[in-house]
Amino acid sequence: MIQHLNNIHHQNSRNFFLIAGPCIIEGEDMALRIAEKVLNMTDRLQIPFIFKGSFKKANRSRVDSFTTIGEEKSLEILKKVGDTFNIPTTTDIHENEHAALAAQFVDVLQIPAFLVRQTDLLVAAAKTGKCVTLKKGQFLSPESMKFAVEKVKDSGNEKTAIIERGNSFGYTDLIVDFRGIPTMQQFAPVILDVTHSLQQPNQSSGVTGGRPDLIETIAKAGIAVGADGLFIETHEDPACALSDGANMLKLDQLESLLQKLTRIREAIL
């Protein structure tokens, strides 16, 4: 997928690529700070980097959960991040109309896991001509993602990748089956969503929990089995994040992790 992104750095480094940023756009200054810090890290390590931030959260447990600072405002911030640092950006879309809207501002459209079987949404994303990432539903087998990929390709868009984010295990945990990565690589490049794989959904409080202490474990395993890319949500202060703080990586811990992962990547090439 990254070969289609002209503004991505280190495209030929043979390193894994990284999708990283906050769960949701909380403000312009915050987005620019995080993007600049992650870009500096990835430039030092020659890791291709795509900045991620949701312009709106639609899948919330409670009606009073934070959703957006404003749809167009958030998209304008994503565009400013991309223009300021000459890097690709991505956001998730939830409605057919969001595809054409978001495509005006970002380089990669992400289909959420719960919506990856929604044919009209996938076709709308594909027809924008943008790169499309497909999050594997927690309820789907790796083999079944072949059909989601085919929906995008049959709509005339070859620029797609799959994001693995674990399978539901009971009511409150997710488990990553690493056998699925080589299986899905038969259909498209595979990105391991490290932080969402460590979510603990369906808590009695209505606020999703998480296990950020296992981020390094999951990330190392993903690189060791040959994932093409990693997805890591990061925040300067996860405890104060407006969304998904329970499973995000603290920004000041990211570079040390990326250094370790780069060494694993070098060892397996």
From TrEMBL:
Transmembrane segments: none
Domain named DAHP synthetase I/KDSA: residues: 7-267
Keyword Transferase included in the entry's annotation: yes
InterPro entries for this protein: Aldolase_TIM, DAHP1/KDSA, KDO8P_synthase
Single GO molecular function: 3-deoxy-8-phosphooctulonate synthase activity
BP-aspect Gene Ontology terms: lipopolysaccharide biosynthetic process
Keyword field contains Transferase: yes
Pfam families: DAHP_synth_1
One GO CC term, this protein: cytoplasm
Enzyme Commission number: 2.5.1.55
Main subcellular location: cytoplasm
Pathway: Carbohydrate biosynthesis; 3-deoxy-D-manno-octulosonate biosynthesis; 3-deoxy-D-manno-octulosonate from D-ribulose 5-phosphate: step 2/3; Bacterial outer membrane biogenesis; lipopolysaccharide biosynthesis
Alphabetized UniProt keyword annotations: Cytoplasm, Transferase
Catalysed reactions listed for this entry: D-arabinose 5-phosphate + phosphoenolpyruvate + H2O = 3-deoxy-alpha-D-manno-2-octulosonate-8-phosphate + phosphate
Family: Belongs to the KdsA family.
Full protein name: 3-deoxy-8-phosphooctulonate synthase
UniProt-annotated location(s): Cytoplasm
